[in-house]
TrEMBL record:
<dbReference type="InterPro" id="IPR014729">
    <property type="entry name" value="Rossmann-like_a/b/a_fold"/>
</dbReference>
<dbReference type="InterPro" id="IPR006016">
    <property type="entry name" value="UspA"/>
</dbReference>
<feature type="domain" description="UspA">
    <location>
        <begin position="16"/>
        <end position="153"/>
    </location>
</feature>
<dbReference type="Pfam" id="PF00582">
    <property type="entry name" value="Usp"/>
</dbReference>
<protein>
    <recommendedName>
        <fullName>UspA domain-containing protein</fullName>
    </recommendedName>
</protein>
<dbReference type="InterPro" id="IPR006015">
    <property type="entry name" value="Universal_stress_UspA"/>
</dbReference>
Length: 155
């Protein structure tokens, strides 16, 4: 169930932003939130950030750009169906939105825009070397978020 106006938001005690995609770590983070944190008076914002590089879209041919846009729309629809269903069957009030840009930056930006009181994110558990070279979305969020961040890691 989505709530559209800020006036309607006054009935919620907290706004929790959860970063989601179609990965197992994201679903684990959602389920961990549902099992250990969620309360009926919380509004939940699920944010899906694509891995697509804006430069790649700008440099692509018109046909390739159309294909990328179509794939992104299909990916977002899949996320909305999956997590919309999970929210509905678990009685979680909230909305699903898309983030643009680098995922870590988009998560921090969306948390500020939504007035989030907390961020929940999964982690793929990159090793130290990979994380050093590739960067980690969860590391970026932890170090740049203005609100508390819970990083859910499956052992």
């Amino acid at each position: 169930m989505a709530v559209d106006s800020r006036k309607d938001m006054s009935k919620f005690r907290a706004i929790v932003l959860i970063a989601v995609d179609d990965s197992e770590p994201a679903e684990f983070a959602f389920n961990w939130y549902r099992d250990y944190i969620h309360k009926p008076e919380y509004f939940t914002v699920l944010l899906h950030c694509t891995d697509q590089n804006d430069q790649e879209i700008r440099d692509a041919s018109p046909a390739r750009t159309a294909k990328i846009v179509k794939e992104l729309a299909e990916e977002m629809k899949k996320i909305e169906e999956k997590y919309g269903h999970l929210m509905e069957i678990n009685g979680i009030t909230g909305k699903i939105r898309k983030g643009a840009g680098k995922p870590g930056e988009a998560i921090v930006k969306a948390a500020a825009e939504e007035g989030a009181t907390m961020i929940v994110t999964g982690t793929r558990g990159l090793g130290k070397l990979k994380r050093a070279f590739l960067g980690s979305v969860s590391d970026y969020v932890v170090h740049n978020s203005p609100v508390p961040v819970i990083t859910c890691r499956r052992h």
